[in-house]
Specification:
- The protein is of the alpha+beta class.
- It is about 45% helix and about 25% strand.
- It contains six helices and five strands.
- Helix 1 crosses helix 6.
- The longest helix has 19 residues.
- The chain starts with a strand and ends with a helix.
- The mean pLDDT is about 95.
Length: about 140
């Protein structure tokens, strides 16, 4: 994948994989706040057929609170996007790298939040590892 994300491919239907992803995120302290069905939206809005593609907005409340308490404009970077795309009989799960996401914040905010993006990344990597071990 690109340098701004982490990914794995899992066997199963989109719905099965989505349920597993939600549980793996939950085990790492993340909840899913939003779900955008790109396939459905593109069909409804511009009558375009697109492959199954979901964007889940994942949030770890403790980490989000710490970040927002330091700099409220961090809300522009939240929640963490988790993308599920159907690729044949597999579903690709991609997660935005929090370290890359936080690379755009002001230097004083980076200093105040030292370790937070790394903790978020570590938790998200653990969720991906748990999903991979179930595959």
């Amino acid at each position: 994948m690109t340098q701004y994300g982490m990914r794995i491919a899992l066997t199963g239907s989109m719905e099965e994989v989505k349920a597993r992803v939600v549980e793996a995120l939950k085990a790492q302290g993340f909840g899913v706040l939003t779900e955008i069905d790109i396939q459905k939206t593109l069909k409804q809005k511009i009558d375009v057929d697109f492959k199954p593609y979901l964007i889940l907005g994942a949030c770890n409340p403790r980490l989000a609170y710490k970040a927002l308490s330091t700099d409220e404009s961090i809300g522009l970077l939240l929640p963490c996007n988790v993308v599920l795309t159907q690729e044949g009989d597999r579903v690709e799960v991609s997660i935005l790298d929090p370290e890359v996401m936080f690379s755009v914040v002001e230097p004083e905010t980076k200093k105040a939040l030292a370790g937070l993006p790394q903790e978020a990344k570590s938790r998200l990597q653990a969720a991906l590892a748990a999903l991979k071990s179930q595959n």
